[in-house]
Amino acid sequence: MAKLFGSSGVRGLANVDLTPVLACRVAQAVATYSKAKKVVVAKDTRVSGDMIEAALVAGLTACGADVLLAGVVPTPVCAYATKTLSADAGFMLTASHNPPQYNGIKVFNGNALSYMDSDQAAVEKIMGENRPALADWRVLGSVVPTEATTVYMDMALDAVSLKKPWKVVVDPGCGASFHVAPKLLKALGCKVTTINAQPDGHFPARKSEPNAETLVDLSRTVKALGADLGVAFDGDADRVAFIDEKGVFANFDRSLAAYGAFALKRNGGGVVVTNVEASMCIERMAEEYGGRVVRTRVGDIYVSEAIKRDDAVFGGEPCGAWVHPKQHLCPDGPLSAALFLKALEETEKTVSEFVGEAPEYITMRENIACKNETKYKVIEKLSKSLKEAFAEYTDFSTVDGVRLALKNGWLLVRASGTEPLIRLTVEGESTQAAKDITQKATALIHKQIEAPQ
């Protein structure tokens, strides 16, 4: 069968791509693959959540798995509950930061780690062969409502304690963190104000993805109230974004770099993991504290895998997906917000001061048209020509596209997974450096596209 899973699980338009029939088949295949006896199922606030949940439960119980039904909770709550409650698998129904008409199925193993490529391939094979291990009627699974939030709160409150009554504005974006995030911060002694905290799967208040454009109301509220920090989450709260005390959006890359440096300093060095698209400010900050940066393919599942493999102290992507391995291996927005406040408290800095310690560089992006049938061949051939053109490169990687680290910046060339495009990302220490790298790389890409394949 055609590949079904992506780096974020199974995802598509609800009741068009992701139908109840498909959801049931996925559930049966995962139950068969994992030999599941106990499974956690949770969802975000999307309108289609009930429909997909019912189909999943039917498929799981048909294979003899008992279902612990967690209801509407953030993705990290589902992942942590899967591990803590000794479940064989966990299912989170979410399309994360995507629009409300989408939904998805994210699958965790018993260690709260998302299904990797090999797991996904095995599940797809079972689906393709249509051979689920259906149970005898005498041993069908049961459905038991479970309070997954309790074990999560216990973990978070054990991980963080605050002395200062921080003034925080929380924006769940009508998503799954509407209850957990404010509750956690209040339990830590914060003075919490919420906006967009009513659960609504239409996401009427703002787009689900938290960024500078979608968080205008949060920025205004932080400034108007004189708050110390604004915190926002996406639909399932595996991502977090910060607004500083001046009402200014805190850059994702610099926030990641600053917290990574803090984690390294506390640990006395170690490894920080991020993806190939993240800023070089992460390396610059890590070097100050004897740290090493490991880069992965784009996708939080690859970051989590590398964190586990390399025993990293911290990891994340420049979209707000942060992983704290001492607690668990799933990106965790609410926990990240609490730990971020702890970092501010220990360093005695404001948000702008803390994030401002990370250097700021210039990023440029280009999308270059290239036929789907040739774009991967072009990328493959660019490996050689880019190395020849940028002979001064200091590091070279093909873990996800072609990435060259240079003395004054870096470049990344990747084929789009969904469009007939080649994407070029460049970062330079100055505007001129970024322009020079971009122009040189763009010319090489066009030349390779026009060459006979």
Radius of gyration (Å): 22 Å
Report the biggest beta sheet as strand number plus sense, adding barrel if it closes: 6 strands, mixed
Q: Strand order across the biggest sheet?
A: 1-5-4-2-3-6
CATH architectural name of the largest domain: 3-Layer(aba) Sandwich
**Which spans have pLDDT < 50 for at least 5 consecutive residues?**
none
What's the number of structural domains? 3
Proportion of residues in extended strands: 15-25%
CATH topology of the largest domain: Alpha-D-Glucose-1,6-Bisphosphate, Chain A, domain 3
Helical residues, percent: 25-40%
CATH superfamily of the largest domain: Alpha-D-Glucose-1,6-Bisphosphate, subunit A, domain 3
The termini sit apart by: 28 Å
Structural class: alpha/beta
| β-strand number | 19
pLDDT averaged over residues = 96
Number of helices: 14
Principal-axes geometry comes out as globular
CATH class of the largest domain equals Alpha Beta
